[in-house]
Amino acid sequence: MPDGGIGVVRDLVRAVAHPLTGAPGDYDPLLTYIGDARVVLLGEATHGTHEFYRERARITKRLIREKGFTAVAVEADWPDAWRVNRYAQGQGPDKNAATALSGFRRFPAWMWRNTDVLDFIAWLRAHNKSLDPAADSAGFYGLDLYSLHTSIEAVLNYLDRVDTEAAQRARQRYGCFDHFGEDAQACGYAAGLGLSRKCESEVVAQLLELQRRAADDVRRDGRLAEDDFFYAQQNARLVKNAELYYRTMFRGRVSSWNLRDEYMANTLEALIQHLALRNSSMKVVVWAHNSHLGDARATSMGHDGEWNLGQLARQRYGRDCVSIGFSTYSGTVTAAASWDAAAERKAIVPAFPGSYEALFHATGIPAFLLAMPRGSRVAGALSDSRLERAIGVVYQPATELASHYFSAQLAEQFDAVIHFDETRGVEPLDSIPKRNGEPAETFPSGV
Fold it and tell me: pLDDT averaged over consecutive 10-residue blocks of the chain (447 residues)?
């Protein structure tokens, strides 16, 4: 790790960093930097830091109001986020944001059932309600693939409404999962050992049949059917990819990580294409962990053969994509001590010497935005490989260095970074996360 000249780098960062004070104009330089980009990636260095959620919401509100963004796509499951989306757009039975978020029931529920997300969803609904009826409202969508059983139920519910015979065929196909009950991981384990191949062919057949009926469903009922069909089709895609993910999960981290992030990238692309049918200039902001949104090619993950959503988004959208990472030096975080354990407010160990977080701490600026334009002096100074911290839903401070650090070239990984020197954990809406039969979100990587 190159420690020589660290004082020079520190002073350069201090000179060009834009302090964040909580003022309304805090992110004026960031919005100028984003310009006309149509895909903005907003990361987080943990899955449980209040400041990360709060500031992503602040930035997103400005992107929606001032730059016409109409979609927020998050590291969450499709059906749970769709329920929130319906509430935000004035649809569905939920009476308030808290009940709209109640689909997020399993570990780690606090990722989305927390007070910061609650406030943002309430704002999103109020914003949409204030719009002219002809204007495009802003939606909330999930990109992840853990909700196998919930998505099966959603496909069946859709077909029950539009074609009872097709619904019966779908029940027969999805019946291949019945032997494993609610335990999708057991299904994946059996398939990984070659004990079950039936589900693989059945979920593909169901997706293909659903895709073939698209034109008839949309022609019959216009825009409403178009949205309903897209929701059902994405659930069918999720079932197909979740089945493959669970099989792959037992073959090793790299293959399952790559499949998951490629699925999220493909879901993002499908969402953009769907929403562009109504608004060709639609723009989307993505919320996910730094590990998913920072370009994997600039990290030890990439050197080990992993790619991620951020890399794929850059490759697909080029200069239309801007990626912003977040970091913290110390404070507290909401996380669990182990899988399925209750959420705790855990103290964060001060960042390891020589890390990017320690470098930013040394500037003495409590909170700042740092843009790293390609070719700039600061980008050159932050292109050396240093340690970077990632805390997921499980935090293990006793093995801090081994469990939560990887090497990265920050200026190649992100276009900009937002640093808060001391942070605090999010406030969960529930004190104890619960499982509902689905695998825990982020399993097995933790991020």
Answer: 69 97 97 98 98 98 97 95 96 95 92 98 98 94 86 80 79 68 48 52 70 58 69 84 73 75 95 93 97 97 93 97 98 92 94 97 98 96 96 94 95 98 96 45 53
Distance CA(255)–CA(262), nearest Å, equals 11
Q: Does pTM top 0.90 for this prediction? A: no
Choose among 245, 355, 332: nearest CA to 3: 355
What does the domain layout of the chain look like in residue ranges? Answer: 6-145+255-423
Q: Rounded distance, CA 319 to CA 70, Å?
A: 19
CATH number for the domain formed by residue range(s) 6-145+255-423: 3.40.1660.10
Task: Specify the 3-state DSSP secondary structure of 323.
Answer: strand
Q: How far is CA 264 from CA 77, 78, 146, 287, 432, in A?
A: 10, 10, 11, 12, 28
| 144 closest CA partner among 299, 259, 28 | 259
How far apart, in whole angstroms, are the C-alpha atoms of residue 441 and residue 447? 9
Q: Of how many residues is the chain composed?
A: 447
Q: What are phi and psi of 28, to 5 degrees?
A: -55, -45
SS3 label, residue 419: strand
